[in-house]
Specification:
globular; alpha+beta; 37% helix; 6 strands
């Protein structure tokens, strides 16, 4: 990961998070949570965690999000875990998206890691 973008406002950041939540919702992502971690982390400002029903659903969510990011000229630094589809990490620099299959999400419990973070309400 690289350093956070310094040429944006918090309003832009939160608007982008809400748009991303909306895009994920369009493809039936489940149990979405968005957290503002900028006060707790120097690498990224926000984390979105969502669940997918299965591998194909995780990959479809990732494909759709990548398409929407490209259409909206939102920076994409990289993707990890796409092939296995159990935990896909999408690094958008200021925002990191985690798409989990349910069992993996419970096991890794990222919401617990960031339990003190402020929640960002959805789209």
């Amino acid at each position: 990961m690289t350093e956070k973008s310094s040429d944006r406002t918090d309003t832009d950041y939160r608007t982008t998070v809400k748009r991303m939540l909306g895009w994920l919702q369009e493809k039936q992502a489940e149990d979405m949570v968005a957290l503002d971690i900028q006060a707790m982390n120097s690498v990224t400002d926000g984390v979105i965690v969502a669940s997918a029903a299965n591998v194909r659903h995780a990959q479809a969510l990732t494909d759709w999000l990548m398409e929407k990011l490209s259409e909206n000229k939102i920076e994409l630094l990289g993707i990890e875990g796409y092939r296995s589809g159990t935990w896909v990490l999408i690094d958008c620099n200021d925002i990191v998206v985690h798409i989990f299959q349910k069992d993996y999400r419970q096991f890794y419990n990222l919401e617990g890691l960031w339990r003190d973070a402020e929640r960002i309400e959805g789209a």
